[in-house]
Amino acid sequence: MESARRVEAVYDAFQHCTARQLDGKKSVVMYAPASCGGSSSGEEFAPDELVAAGLAGCTLLSMQIGLLAQQREVDLLGSSVKATVRMACGSSQRVAGVDIEVQLPHALSAEDRRAVEEAAEGCPLTASFHPDIPISLNFKYPES
User: Rounded mean pLDDT of the chain?
Assistant: First the structure.
């Protein structure tokens, strides 16, 4: 079984475009990042920032879905994920690596930590990256 999400990007102006859902009303403006020769007013997202946002959201949602599947009641309220997509710029622009940091606001037992970490590893977006692209997934827990 597959699902598909359709998005269209339209070139608006010099180094700017707008992407919109074809089956919805949401849109987002993107720009070419300054690190790779672009310019921005700072109000738009770069495509690599949207990849990072997708990875952060996917990790959080995978944690919730995975914990529900395991029938574990772990309080994730206030949890956050920071995702960094490192880009190789130059003649071959591409994703060079991904760093994901999960911050949980509550102390957890060792068993709950294992369950949370296993669930976070279930993000289908991270599983879709080529094996040559390193992905680090780190967890930060408060002191008990």
Answer: 88
Confidence check: pLDDT of 144 > 60? no
Q: How far out from the chain centre does Cα 140 lie?
A: 17
Strand duo 94-103 + 7-13: pairing:
unpaired
Helix 110-120 vs helix 47-69: crossing angle, to nearest 10: 130
| Residue 88, both tokens | 């190789």
Q: How many CA atoms lie within 13 Å of 132's alpha carbon, on the beta-carbon side? A: 3
Two tokens, residue 60: 């959080």
